[in-house]
Structure formats: structure tokens, C-alpha cells
Fold each of these.
Amino acid sequence: MGDKPRFKAFVGLLFLSVSFIQTMGCTRNSSDPSSVVTVYSSRADHLIKPIFDLYQERTGQEVRFLTDSEGPLMERLKAEGANSPADLFLTVDAGNLWKAAEEGLLRPIQSKKLEQAIPAHLRDPENQWFGLSLRARTILYSPERVSPSDLSTYEALADEAWAGRLCMRTSRKVYNQSLVAALIAHHGQERAEQIVGAWVRNLATEVFPNDTDLIRAIAAGQCDVGIANSYYFGRLLRDQPDFPVRLFWASLENSGTHLNVSGAGVTRHAKNPEGAQALLEWLTEPEAQKAFAELNLEYPIVTEVARDPIVEGWGSFQGDLLNLRSLGELQTQAVQLMDRVQYR
Ligand code: FE
């Protein structure tokens, strides 16, 4: 017990000398939170490290990052509260971005640059999160058993013609919750429920844990069509250019292909909000956009940026113009709807 005050005094002295050293010298001392940008990312290391390295090379800004799944990262942000070292939260799917905003983990920022670079439907109307790359969830099919002329909309996969021929990923994945939310936004609950219920009746097999297994099942003849994000197909093509599956640009009735984003927002308790905003703005520069989209074979959000040849090979599509925030707002309804029709 008696040692405690002395210990405290020692720590105080140490602290003073550390601050002193900081004032003395480096402008970018890494123990000063305002000189570093810290990112919590649910995108995998190999998809973001090259981008942050490039940023550091271009600007000298040190970026630290921590990767995990979005759930644990959001829990962590909540638990850390004002003590969180995170300045920027980066994740995929508007459903997750919306949830982070809804739970008070992000802050609105004013940026003309972001508003100009990112189409309005691909960012939060309250400026708490911004799409950085575009992903399209569309129809994949077997060219041996399906003619592209048989394909049209997501809704048409509810037709009896597809009975026993459809593959779907689990409804637990936010990608499908967002897709069903888009159906609700366009058609209302009742019609959306009819469509999703018919998809479930048309299933050829149990639902899949991920998109890659689903696409492989089409190749293996377990089913003829399925719905997946295009980049998963791109990865398979990168390894095997003659992979026996094709991509069809599905559209929602009276609209376009179902879109989603990966994106980011400045955290509520950012120690370096200016640094986080600067990084966010840089991510919309053509050089960053190209790298960010290409690493995962997604689409740049800035349209004039060139695409990867694999992605280019799929041709162009019209995207749905629904503001992605709706996907979050309708998420609970979508999950309940999928439960009702026993979409596992
Ligand atoms: Fe994914």
C-alpha cells in the first residue's frame, strides 16, 4: 500500500517526460492519437493493407488497422465508447453500415468531395457512412442447362419453371437480408413474401453457407441457377477461366440490378476525425478506387475508373437506384419475412 503514492509519482514523472519528448520532436509521433488514423475493418487484411500502404506512401499518414467480423467490431466500438482508438469503421453491406449508424457508432461529416464523388443513393442521406466500392448481387447459371433467354428478373425465379433448380445462400447472411429488403422496398411486404416463399419452394438443395459453395454447386449440377455477388464468381474465374458457370445481369422488376456497397464512416469517438475524413476522401480518388475495387473484383464507385478485365468481361448493367439506407431500415422486416416463409 505504502508504495502506491511513490509509484504514482513515478508514473506521473514518466508521463511528463514522454509528453516532453513529444513536444520536443516528432510531428508524427505514433503515441499521439491525433497523428495516426486507426481503422476497424471487417474487410480482410489482404483487401485493405495494400490500400493503406499506398495511402501512407502518398501522404506519409500512418494508418493502423484491426480486422474482425462486423459483429465483434461493432460490439467492441460500443464497449470501448469514448476510449476507442478507432477513427474509421470500414465494413461491407449497407445493412451493416446502417446498423453502425443506428447504434450511434458513427458521426455525420460534411464533405463536398465525398458528396461529389459518390452517387447519392450509395451513401447515407445523413452523411454517417459512404459507399466506397460497388457490389452487384445477380444471377449465376449453368450454360449447359439454362439459356440466358430463360432469365430476366429476380422475381421471375419464383416461377414454377425453376422448381427444384434454384440454389440460395442462407438467409442469415446480410447480403440476402438486403436483397429481400430491396424486394420489400419495391413491391411491399405481401408481394415480397410471395416471391421469397416461391424461391424457397423452388430450392434444389439446402441453403449454402457462402456464395462460393453455391456457385460451385451450379457447376457440379446440383442446381441450375442461383443468386450471388459477382466478385465471388470473379475469384473462381481468376483461378479457372473456363469455370462452367455464367453470369446474367438480373434486374428487379421495373428497376435494375440489386446493388450494395462496401463503405465506411468516421466513428463517433474518433480521436483523429480530420485524419479519418482525409483517408475517406482519398479512397474516392481514381488511383485508390481502382486498387480498392480490383483487389476484390468489385466495381469502383467512381464510374470513370477502369475495371478489371474479368469484371469488364461481364459487360454493363443498370443498377437499382434505391437509396441503400432503405436496405437497413427494412432489415428487420426482411428477416421476419424470411422466417415466415421458412427460408433458413
Ligand atoms: Fe462478400
Note: The first helix runs from residue 3 to 24.
Amino acid sequence: MDKITVAEARKAEAVGRHVRLQGWVRTRRDSKGGFSFIELNDGSCQGNVQIVAPGELANYEAVVKHLHTGASVVIDGEVKTSPAKGQATEILASHVELIGNADAEKYPLQKKGHTYEFLRTLAHLRPRTNTFGAIARLRHQVSMSIHQFFHEHGFYYIHTPIITASDCEGAGALFRVTTLDPDAPPKVAGKADFTKDFFGKQAYLTVSGQLQVESFACSLGKVYTFGPTFRAENSNTPRHLAEFWMVEPEMAFCDLNDNMDLAEAFLKRIIADALKYCAEDMKFFQERIDPDLLKRLDGVLNKPFKRVSYTEGIGLLLKAPQTWEFPVAWGSDLQSEHERYLAEEYFKCPVILYDYPRTLKPFYMKVNDDGKTVRAMDVLVPGVGEIIGGSQREERLDVLEQRMREQRLEPEAYSWYLDLRKYGTVPHSGFGLGLERCVLFLSGMANIRDVIPFPRTPGNAEY
Ligand code: 4AD
Ligand code: MG
């Protein structure tokens, strides 16, 4: 007898096979005819498979009739064509074994719908629900598409460090990594002496693998890194996490236009794959989470992204027929409301905003000839706002050093990074896509805490 998944059992090709299924009971219903229906799910797909458990089973009265939502079971039986509509197959059980019971009074995921807020307090059980199962499968698919896209386009996957002494974004929102005793650190001149710390200097969790991956771009040409990143900003918003996953491609001999082309092709590929390989889950998101989802994603797939300079963007915002919570002015950062207005209302498609004021962006971005702006680009999408941030990098040593001083960074601390400009410097560009922002966009979910298995946010590091 073959062990198969619920996904396999639901296909018409399975009819006639004697199989074993293992999973969790979603519901049980006893028929007056003396048999029971069990809805079984094993996480392999959105839908359940219906098990028909006949009254003749030896343990029918003692076990089957007491199976509760959440119990784990092993079912042996034959796959049959189902007479019921909405499902191709069902399983006629010849054997039902209870593995682990779930107390009907105590099991927290009863049949009725729960709020996402409540489910966040059950992050260890919520993957058993339809919504969180679908998100986990979608997240997996997006991760696979990321690797496949870059592999097919000749990029090498580089593993950049999690612990680093460099502050890539220059924003100072770093988590410190230390083994010093917080109550009694060794001191020099009244301050903690980090030369006595584990690494002999101050170290942090990475906010981005970009600086390190640049060194591989400047030797292997096309590379990417994909891993967890950490930001200690105190942002309690539905779009920010303290720990999130970011994919960062980097290309040598490549300018900002090539970078925009790559970002657009990359996002479109991820959407196309999700629609193709997660069709059942995407239909669920459309029906249960966001009724405009599929239309919006189709629009993104089939239209070119709009490319607009920051300065033009500010002009559009100043002319917009609405008032803003955060004032709009050239030189100030765009807030979510501004980004979403441009993508959702004005252009109604993804927008790539480029050439931001130099004061708003990190030291590594290439300064334009106007001296006021840098070759930055942000990709803004309807429903989410900024999903990608990237730039052409400053390849001129003197300008880069000057930018570091301007942002109060010591060039000496980045001497290895400056070497890339000293020895065989090349124009190069790259970007970062936040995996969770991407899953938000693809699922229509509203809160980033619901698209990562165990969210870390200010005041919360449960599990
Ligand atoms: O725009 P960011 O800060 O860019 C960088 O880190 C560059 N080093 C990338 C590069 O050029 N290689 O972040 C990139 C993306 C954002 O567009 C957003 O999708 C996501 O990472 N992101 C976050 N996602 C969740 N929570 C946060 N706190 C995030 N901060 C950034
Ligand atoms: Mg950004």
C-alpha cells in the first residue's frame, strides 16, 4: 500500500488505488446511515479529502465516532470517484487509526473562523488553518522562484554573513552581538571595552548582505544573496519586521536601467509562478482575503512598470487632490500613503521611482551629475508600497569616501569595501526584495506579521 498525500488523493488519476493517508481531522460528521465523513488535511494542499468511514470498521463506535477536530490519524482505504460535487475523489476507509487525540474542549482551533490577532498568539498551531497553510506554501514557492530565476539567468548564490561589523544602510538600526556581561562589562575610559568582546570589536546582526555580495559581483559578475536580515528600528507598522528575509542580486558592468529591467522581470516571474504553481491557494486568497487580488496581479504581469523620477513623483503628490498625514516636499522621504497613492491611484500599476535626494539614501549610492540626487530606485506596488529598494553603486573612490564622511561613517572601517573601488572598479548595481513584502503583495494579506512563521517585532519574540 502506497503512502500518498491529500493533494495526490484528490486527483482523479488516483481512483482505484489502495492507499495510506496521514493527517489531521478538520471535521467529522456522522450520517444517519450508520457511517461517518471525515474531512482530512495533511498540509499538502488547500483542500481536504473526504474519508468515508463505514460503520463496519472494528473501531467505529469506540474510536471513529469520537474523532475530534485536530486529532491526527492514519487512514487506509481505496480512492473512489466522489458522487459529491466540488471534489473529484473520496476515500472509502478500510482502517482508521487514531494517533494523537485533540481534546474537543481544549483544542484552540475549533471550526469557526478566528481573527488574525488571536491566531498570532497561536503561531505554533496557526499553520493548520487554511489561511496560514496557504501562506506557508506560497512562501515556499516564492523562495523557489527566486532561486530558479537567478540560477536560470546565470547568477551565483553567495552566502553572506549574518554577523558583521559593517553597517550597510548607515541607518544605525542595528542589533548588537556580544558575549560581554551586560551587568559588568570590562571598561576603558568609563565605556564598555569591546576589544575584550568575542570578536575583539563591536559586532552586529546584518541589516543587508549587500556590501559583502558586492565583492563577489566584482569578481563573479552576477550574484545574489538571500537570507535573514535584522533591523532594530522601532517601527510598529503592518509593513515592518525586526527580522525579515531579503534577496539581493548584484550585477557588475550594470547601470540603473539594467537594474530596473532585472527587478521588473524578476517580480513578474515570481507572480507568474505563484499563479501557476499555487493556483488553488491563490484562488483561496482571492475568495477569502482580497477580492481584487487576481485582477491586480494580472494587471502587474501584463503592463510595463511605470518609471518616474523622485522629482516628478513629488510634483504629482503636490498636485494630488487630497490631504496628507505627512507633508510632501522635495527632499523629504516618501511615506507609505504617498507610495500607495502613486501606485494604486495615480498610475494604477507598479512604479519605479528613481533618482532620490542624496540626503535620503545610504552612502553607497552613485551620485548623479546634478550633485543633489543619487541613482536610487524603489519599486512601489499597489497594496503594499515599497517592495524593492536598490541602486547603482558609487564606483568612484573619492566620491564614495566623501559620502561616507558626509554620513559620519569612518572610511577606515570600510577599507575592504573601498578596495573594490581601488582595484579594478566597475559600474555595478543591485537591489533588495523583502520576501515578506512580496508575500503580502501576492496574498492580499494586510499585516506582515501574518506572512512570516514566527514574527519578531518590537516587544515580541515569542516562540
Ligand atoms: O530598501 P532597503 O533598506 O535596501 C537595502 O537593504 C539594500 N541594501 C538593498 C540592495 O540594494 N541590495 O531594503 C530592501 C527591501 C525593502 O524594499 C523592503 O521590501 C524590505 O527590504 N524591507 C523590510 N521588510 C520588512 N521589514 C522591514 N523592517 C524592512 N526593511 C526593508
Ligand atoms: Mg528602502
Note: The pocket of 4AD (ligand 1) is lined by residues 168-169, 208, 210, 231, 240-241, 244, 246, 248, 386-391, 430-434, 436-437 (CB under 6 Å).
